[in-house]
Amino acid sequence: MAVPVLHLNLAPRPTLWRQHHRVLGWAALGLGGAFLLGSLGLTWRVYHQASRAGRDAVSLTEETRRAARSEAQIQAALQSMDATREQARWKLAERILQERSLPWSRVTAELEQCMAPGMRLKSLQRTRGNGQQVVMKLKAEAQSRVAEAAFVDALRTAPVFSEVILERESERQGGGWDFELSVPAAAVPPPFELRPVKTGPAPTAPAAPPKPVAATPRPAPAPAAPGAARLTPPPASPASPLAPGDKAGAQTRPMPAPNDDEESRPPRGSRLSRRPPR
């Protein structure tokens, strides 16, 4: 009887590690090195941020100490300062700053654009109001109320002036009007804009329509005396040309027409002028 054949394999089965252990080892080594480099980078970044935060904290602390020292110095200076003595300087500084906000060149340019025909300015003064506002005091005269109204309307539409206050108005002898205005300026005047200047004759008020004149009745002619001859005046003859030697200014006067009360008498030397024998 034959002996059976036994197939025995005493070697272990091949695994992934046994087949690719070299590649897997190098891959694990590289991955570990990457993690190591990442951790080192993150550690350096955190350390850099911490150092910068420390420097900022030191600088802020130093700035806080410096601000505290400046505040203490300012408080000491304010305690040692005499307010009544410095008040005049403060008011002068405020006045200079306020006047610089509206220079004279801007004021004159705006008033020139607001001028109306038939009026003129007599005086111009710049003062300050209660709220430290620049106020223009104007004294002017106008030939008519229309010119005055045109000037006031132009001031009201000007953007550099906030309002127009009429303080006084009076009529001058011989015609015209005198008036005084207070014109406060705007707190923040807008940029200057060139507008067309009004030129031309002075506007006048419309003339009143003429009153109708009532016709006066003419007296009737007196009746003629009985027996008196009534003559009619001859028609007017056309003007004859001037004879040579006559003056150009000479004119012929028409003969006066006889009145109804007078008798018509014939000319002397005629037959009708002779009296009949008695």
Strand order across the biggest sheet?
1-2-4-3
The proportion of residues forming helix, as a percent range, comes to: 25-40%
Largest beta-sheet details: 4 strands, antiparallel
Beta fraction: 5-15%
Supply Rg.
59 Å
List the helices and strands and how they pair.
Layout: H1 16-80, H2 83-100, H3 104-114, E1 119-128, E2 134-142, H4 145-157, E3 165-171, E4 177-184
Antiparallel strand pairs: 1-2, 2-4, 3-4
Structural summary, described in words:
This protein is α+β, with helices and mostly antiparallel strands. Helix content is about 40%, strand content about 10%. The protein has four helices and four strands. The protein has helices spanning about 15-80, 85-100, 105-115, 145-155, and strands at about 120-130, 135-140, 165-170, 175-185. A four-stranded antiparallel beta sheet has the order 1-2-4-3. Strand 1 and strand 2 (about 135-140) form a beta hairpin. Mean pLDDT is about 75; it is low at about 225-235, about 235-250 and about 260-265.
At a glance:
This protein has 278 residues and is an alpha+beta fold. The chain has 4 helices and 4 strands, in the order H-H-H-E-E-H-E-E.
